[in-house]
Amino acid sequence: MTREQAELIIEEEKLIYVTWRDYDNTSGEYHFTIWFNPNNNKYETIYIGERGGVEYEYSFDNEKEAIDKMLQENYWHKYHNIKDIKEYLTKEAALRIIKEEKLEVIWYDEALKPLCTGIKHDKQRDKYISFITNAKAEIIEYKSIEFDGDRYSETFKEMLNDEFLALYALINRARMIKQNRISFV
User: Fold this and answer.
1) What is the pTM for the complete model shown?
2) Taking a C-beta distance cutoff of 8 angstroms, is the pair 152, 130 a contact?
């Protein structure tokens, strides 16, 4: 995924603003910054929170990994801060919302449909993938966002996964398609 493609996704899906330069605490609050740090030869994804302070910082060997992490974190912040869904998002809750709002989606192992958003679970890599299809019912690769599967918490007391974020991305994208905000190229 390129910077331009990421910017299109952020704009169309109404995600949090991203700057593409060195961290600068004068650039405001509540946004992401991605930049290449020449000191360690890494791409860094940084979330700027309250009062322009760094809340999260990740380093990657290539820009694509940094962009992917920014999109994952972007959906995490949108889910927790916007609160347009007032409950923990399980498969059952997501299906209820999809039915109530009459959203068109591709659910896990369903056949691909044209001009639609979907979710799937790549069991080999244990990733949940939110995707969008084009008019030929083919997945638009650069619009796919991967979310982590099962992993232990930092204290190793519980198993976690980001399926709820992939479900949230599915619902958000379906809403944006319904509002004609998504491009399919």
Assistant:
1) 0.86
2) no
Token pair, residue 45, equals 């994804």
In this structure, is the dihedral angle defined by the CA atoms of residues 142, 166, 31 and 181, taken in order, positive or negative?
positive
The amino acid sitting at 13 is E
Task: Tell me the two tokens of residue 150.
Answer: 């099962």
CA atoms of 173 and 185, how far apart (whole Å): 15
| Residues 80, 81, 84: CA angle, nearest 5 degrees | 85
CA dist 70 and 65 (Å) reads 9
- CA-to-CA distance for 174 and 154, rounded, in angstroms? 33
Tokens of 65: 């990994």
Nearest-5° angle of CA 164, CA 75, CA 73?
105
pLDDT digits (tens, 9 = 90+) for 10-66: 999 999 888 887 655 556 777 888 888 889 999 999 888 887 788 888 999 999 899
In one-letter notation, the amino acid at residue 138 is E
Over the chain, what is the mean pLDDT? 89
The CA distance from 84 to 88, in Å, is: 11
Tokens 């918490």 found at: 153
Three-class DSSP category at 120 = strand
Backbone angles phi, psi at 55, to 5 degrees: -100, -40
Does position 153 have pLDDT exceeding 80, yes or no? no
Please answer whether residues 19 and 33 qualify as being in contact, where contact means their C-beta atoms are separated by less than 8 angstroms: yes
